[in-house]
Amino acid sequence: MSRLNYIGHLTIDQFLREYWQQAPVLLRQALPELPDMISPEELAGLACEDVVESRLVSTDQATPGWHVRHGPFSEQDFTSLPDTDYTLLVQDVEKHIPELRRLVDPFRFIPDWRIDDLMISYAAPNGNVGPHTDAYDVFLIQTMGRRRWQIACRFYPDLLTDCDLQILKHFHAEQEWVVEPGDVLYLPPGVAHYGVALEPCMTCSVGFRAPSDYELLGSYTDWLLDCHSDGSRFTDADRQPADHASRIPDQDLADLRQRLKNALLEDDNAIDIWLGRGLSTPKENFALQEPGNIETVDDFLDTWRQSGGLLRNPACRMLYANISGSWHLFVHGEHVEIADTIAGRLPEICETNSLPWDPDNPPELLALMFELYRSGYYYFC
Ligand code: SIN
Ligand code: CO
Fold this sequence. Notes:
By secondary structure, this protein is α+β, with helices and mostly antiparallel strands. 26% of the residues lie in helices and 25% in strands. It is built from eleven helices and 19 strands.
């Protein structure tokens, strides 16, 4: 994948040094050539599907405040909407419409595991989701119409009560811009922002994820429990008689404390493989994949040769890492150790949407692709 050295007027190095995780920045015309976008009608169509996560946020004069409804929606929900004051937001669009991954590509100077999804919103005039903060970094790409963004780095954290959305009670803009298609606003976590559609508009949010220490710890201990359900247990063969039965002896406290610390220790390699698997695990609505039904390698290779290309299931997260000198591929929560002879192909496998047939592909690569196809991570169109 070719990479650009600039993001808007900034070099990638400058952006990372001065803004990433630190300060908001408006990148005027950072993406002047937008890919063919989904239309508002197609976005509404997606929001009617069961596996798609979507929300409709509206403001209306009769019952002041913001109201949210969650999808899936019906056609009737959209035909009964007013002309103004609503926003439809759809998550994970790049996993449903793989061509739209192109909107994420310019930001892949940040590793894929950090990227959560591409959310697309369509807003009618005056549509907005209220002033709020997000816990994660976001690039807000304007792809249609104009929107006024207001932001504040310092604000009172109090939220509106009686509202299903987390909306700031007091918001005073420190900076404001009107953005147009091609403009990108970067916000680090925790910056208050309020975007109001000046006309029918679409905004694409490339959102990032950052696990909290205690989320990591929670899943780490779940995994340890799975691996060591019959692990060692407290023993006290050298017990002395207790002076007071109700006192927990100091030695017992020290032993238990030490056992707890020991139980959390695991081999670094095993932890790294567990991390790779966890980071490639999809959200629940993408968990099930249809396995490929071609049963033999020969039939699979014939089909690949004839079809020209093997397409990657867009819902699959593919990541790789070098762990203690060995290469590992992680996909959909699974892990495969990769032979050194084909390790150089890992970026291509993980970063492109299709793999063309090539008669010179080595047998290890063919075997790997067959395994990935059988698991449902690749398909033929
Ligand atoms: C929107 O697209 O309307 C809202 C995005 C955001 O504020 O995070
Ligand atoms: Co936001």
